[in-house]
Amino acid sequence: MPRPRFDRRAPVRELPNINERINYPQLRVVDADGSQLGVITREAALDVAKDRELDLVLVSEKADPPVCRIMDYGKYKFEQEKKAKEAKKKSHQTEVKEVKMRYKIDQHDYDVRIGQASRFLKAGDKVKCTVIFRGREIQHTALAEVLLHRMARDLETAAEIQQPPKREGRNMIMFLTPRKAAVPKPGSAPAAGKPATPKPVPVKTAARVVTRTLESRNAEPPGGGSSPATP
What we know:
The protein is α/β, with parallel strands linked by helices. The chain is about 30% helix and about 25% strand. The protein has helices at about 40-50, 75-90, 105-120, 140-155, 205-220, and strands at about 25-30, 35-40, 55-60, 65-70, 95-100, 125-130, 160-170, 170-180. Helix 3 (about 105-120) links the parallel strand 5 and strand 6. The longest helix has 18 residues, at about 75-90. Residues about 200-205 and about 225-230 have low confidence and may be disordered.
């Protein structure tokens, strides 16, 4: 069976339906300012677009009759491409970034890993924290778990634990995900418009106050006056 020959021709690019490429005899035309010009012939619509030094663009081919709009097609295409680029920038695809370390990591290297994880979380990515064991280090999984919990505490303002520390083969991993709500700092003032929550009075203190009140009332003489003088 002969092999199919490679087609060296350039792919056919789909051209926009504007101006003379529109082949429908009757068109419903919308002017550049949004006003309706009604159903007119193709030639009349092209003449109107030419008089305004604009383009006749087919916007709805399935309508009966098809709908065209008079506009500056070059400007319209530029604005559409700009909107597409902005939408692409805003739509961030969440990725999983990995931070690797040993359980015997020193403070400087640990701070570097914290900085890397913090940048990943601020960018909206998840972080896979991995502790690698080599040789007999596999006996110290408890130290690796302590290290991962320490990392989670140091990043608690920007992240929350999605998967707690878990051993997988010769590694121990933990997944962090960006925190949606900010964690209030200890001792911070209450938000404006919200009254501060009163501190509860201990039960023993309240009982002492009630006991002293009753004792003072029992010590008073009948009638509430002073005791009579001794003759």
